[in-house]
Amino acid sequence: MRRYVIIGTGAAGISASEAIRCYDQNGEILLIGDERHGFYSRPGVAYFLNGELSEQQLFPFTQQDFRRLNVRMLNARVTRIHPQQHQIELENRARLPYDRLLIATGASAVRSTVPGNHLQGVVKMDTLDDVHHIIKLTQRARTAVVVGGGITALELVEGLRARGVKTHYFLRGDRYWGNVLDEAESQIIERRLKDDGCQIHTNTELAEILGKNGHVLGVRTADGRQIACEIVGVAIGVLPRLDLAKTADIHIDRGIMVNEYLETSTSDIYAAGDVAQVYDPFTKKSVLDSLWGSARDQGTAAGMNMAGQCMIYTKLIPFNVTRLANLTTTIIGAVGKGADRDLAGIARGDSEVWRLLPDSIAAQTSFEVNRLRILVGENSLIGALVMGDQTLSQPLQNLIARRVDITLIREKLLQPEAPLGELIADFWIQWKGNYADRPSRPPQQS
Ligand SMILES: Cc1cc2nc3c(=O)[nH]c(=O)nc-3n(C[C@H](O)[C@H](O)[C@H](O)COP(=O)(O)OP(=O)(O)OC[C@H]3O[C@@H](n4cnc5c(N)ncnc54)[C@H](O)[C@@H]3O)c2cc1C
Description:
By secondary structure, the protein is α/β, with parallel strands linked by helices. 26% of the residues lie in helices and 28% in strands. It has a five-stranded parallel beta sheet. Helix 1 runs parallel beside helix 8. Bound molecules: flavin-adenine dinucleotide.
């Protein structure tokens, strides 16, 4: 009987145990996590903060689901891996054996390094406990300052506003999420935030968090302005949790490097999810994602391989459906470029692939808040951003992921004022009718 040990009870760890159980009915699966709430929707915590979801709705698994999976859960922190002995070590120094080990330890929020970062009232939004803490603070706080870029910073702003806290949002650059959104898209989001009462400060850097008796009293900006507040929200990116891999001399770069079977450089040890750095066939680079869907897919592939299947993991085009300033937004493939000055590393709900832009030309169309931007490559679409009306998000995901040849409509798409929506919709209907059942054209691996 094989003994599987999975470190991390997040999306990657849970989908790995589901996959293992599909192929090995008898093996012992031990799921170890130091998160006291166990498995819950991490993206969902933002909607718990803004009051749209109850705490109960964050938990996709019931006790019965875990019983069905026949896994043993252990709430503990793993401190070391001893690969020679095939053992892991817990905080209490107890050692447990494994035959196959999965590191699915995710990523953690980067902390601010400015003076005052230790004060009560400096918050992040990474876990359910973080959100409980923020909610408690909002019961007394009147004003907050949020720093950072990407989805989490915006969700923090919106959550604080929803709880009646006056909110200032600091952006280091001159617009929101400038390396993923184009100027018009940033403007749409900023206008909606302002309409909701948020004060946006562009080209503004946090220099110091001011406090008294250990509590936040305000902030000072790099250009010397002071703003009084009781909460400082920090969402400046996430970094993979690599401490465990380091104890086992596993090959790491920015994340744990894995091969196409999600195996690390050390035998019988796999990695999946936010902690793993995975080969991307589209950009031909090893990249990091912080996406729920990627974590689940990687967990499934790692679990299958741990259970003895020979499952090559091919990274799909990164895809996220999210809400930015209450506007449903789908981001597919490569849509932006460069580093984000508001982030150290990548943000939650983000993929490095979005900014590794191959040669392409952008075409866009917008109508009030509905906006569509597509990135047109040599003979296929390589990325798209759909804001508002989501009718085209699924067709675009298919066309981009399958690298469908769009030569027939390429010139039309690139005409000024081209009716992009209509062209894509007509092309999709025709293509689906003719070819949808054929296998997709996978990109060549170098
Ligand atoms: C606020 C927020 C918004 C997000 N928005 C989006 C979004 O819009 N779209 C999207 O696709 N994704 C989003 N994400 C990201 C998504 O939730 C993550 O990509 C996904 O949860 C990663 O899953 P994982 O299993 O790799 O890691 P995690 O979910 O981080 O799980 C890792 C687990 O390992 C545990 N662990 C770590 N080290 C140890 C150790 N030494 N011993 C024991 N246990 C350990 C941790 O406690 C944690 O429970 C968001 C996340 C957050 C927090």
